[in-house]
Amino acid sequence: MTHIANFIAQTTQGGEPPPGLGSMLFPLALMGIVFYFLLIRPQSAEKKRRAAMLSGIKKNDRVVTIGGIMGTVLSVKDDEVTLKVDESSNTKITFARSAIQRVSAVAPGESSTDLQPRK
């Protein structure tokens, strides 16, 4: 408490006035701009890229799920994707579309130049 009183007394005794709001606002605004360009903007670009990848899934694409299961797309519904994960036993598993992590190969008969890069 006495520290606050000493600070007030020093600033009122003809010393320099405390910095104004403008001199404190500029660094804060600069930090906000840097935060936007380093975090928010790349995250929204990644979100758009993932949405495009999920909406572009089609039959016969090879995909990897977020659980690491690899398979071939048999059918695509609104929010469901059915994968064939084993050729010998004809095992099929249905996943939520959002569970697809990446498309690892293009469908047969398509050239890879027609599609966006797949990761």
What does this structure look like?
The protein is an alpha+beta fold. Among the domains are: 21-55; 58-105, SH3 type barrels (Roll), CATH 2.30.30. The chain contains two helices and five strands; from the N terminus they run H-H-E-E-E-E-E. The protein has helices at 2-12, 21-55; strands at residues 62-65, 70-76, 80-86, 91-96, 100-105. It has a five-stranded antiparallel β-sheet, with no helix packed on it. It is rod-shaped, with a radius of gyration of 28 Å. The model has no long low-confidence stretch (mean pLDDT 83).
Helix content: 25-40%
Can you count the helices? 2
Q: List segments where confidence is low: pLDDT < 50 over at least 5 consecutive residues.
A: none
Q: What shape does the CA trace take?
A: rod-shaped
Record the SSE blueprint.
Blueprint: H1 2-12, H2 21-55, E1 62-65, E2 70-76, E3 80-86, E4 91-96, E5 100-105
Antiparallel strand pairs: 1-2, 1-5, 2-3, 3-4
Features:
119 residues; alpha+beta; SH3 type barrels; five-stranded antiparallel β-sheet
Précis, in short:
With 119 residues, the chain is an alpha+beta fold.
